[in-house]
């Protein structure tokens, strides 16, 4: 079984990437047969969806761009979970993350291929109350229309997802509360994905 981490930050390898790696390491630790992979959207040119409906045809799009390079990975039937990470921009997800989620409509339009895939979300803000939960809920709304199963970070907090802070002394690496939520999210996604797959 595979669990994907998708970094919706245009800043490759920075704080959101760090948080996703923490979550994916926790997911991989649940069972040896869980394979994890991190996708850095900042490495790809992803154009905005233009609502042309061409993707009603099997896994096609008007745009021949970086998103289409990701389609084979994103359509792998072995995917049991997807964890999406975003920095908080103006109280919500990044524009890159939104473009990715809009373009992912092709998986809904082609047999709801992400049905019962477990979805988790993490957000990194500059401060503790920097809009992380709003960003998480916006992404969860997009995942719900894919017919995915949405989870939060699980006990002991069991909130919307993982919420991390980068603007503290020492940076995100010193955000023990946030890192705990990231670890719990990865574990929760993996454990439920295993249950759903029998």
Give the assembly state of these chains. single chain
Uncertain spans, ≥5 residues at pLDDT below 50?
none
Major β-sheet profile = 6 strands, parallel
Helix content: 25-40%
Overall geometry comes to: globular
User: How large is the radius of gyration?
Assistant: 16 Å
The CATH class assignment is: Alpha Beta
The overall number of domains is 1
Per CATH, the superfamily is: Flavodoxin domain
Measured by DSSP, the beta-strand proportion falls in: 15-25%
String of helices and strands:
EHEHEHHEHEEH
Number of helices: 6
Structural class: alpha/beta
Overview of the molecule:
The chain is α/β, with parallel strands linked by helices and 198 residues long. Helix content is 36%, strand content 18%. It has one domain (2-196): Flavodoxin domain (Rossmann fold). It is built from six helices and six strands; from the N terminus they run βαβαβααβαββα. Strands 1, 2, 3, 4, 5 and 6 form a six-stranded parallel sheet that branches. The longest helix is centred in the last third of the chain and has 21 residues, at 176-196. The model has no long low-confidence stretch (mean pLDDT 97).
